Amino acid sequence: MVIGSVGAGKSSLIRALLKDDREVAKTQSLLFRDWLIDTPGEYCENPLQYRYLIATSFDTKLLVLVQDATRERGYFPPGFAGGFPVPAIGVITKIDLAAANPEKAERLLRQAMPKGDCFAVSSLNGTGIDELRDRIDSLLQIGGTR
How many domains does the chain have? Predict the structure, then answer.
């Protein structure tokens, strides 16, 4: 399950992971695509919506927290990942942009998930996507399902 704020790059990340050439559109509700769940950014930004994320996570094996490298602040509260019954990894998106600060983005992610892998990626040019996909494969053991 992929979670992050509005505009963090979740849908573009999923598109890159699935090697999908469809145009990215705003996610309005939970979208189940192949082996991934795309969540609306509003679910991350509004604490009243956390219950939907937590309930959905019971049907998942992995939480993917997404932080935009160009953002000045994080949208996850401290210890956010600990409220879920599944392990979490972090993904820093938009590292190819001039305003990107991957180090700051990782610090923001680490507040929400103190342990777990973090990957810096660009969904646009593909940097880091193969490594992230391989790590997800190893954690979920989904190798032949794509």
Answer: 1
Q: Over 80: is that where the pLDDT of 144 sits?
A: no
**In the predicted structure, residue 30 carries a pLDDT above the cut 50:** yes
pLDDT at position 35: 82
What distance in Å separates the CA atoms of residue 110 and residue 141, rounded to the nearest whole number? 25
For 128, the domain range is 2-145
Distance between CA atoms of residues 95 and 55, nearest Å: 31
CATH of the domain at 41: 3.40.50.300
CA nearest 91: which of 73, 116, 72? 116
Torsions phi, psi for 31 (to 5 deg): -120, 125
Residue 106, pLDDT above cutoff 50: yes
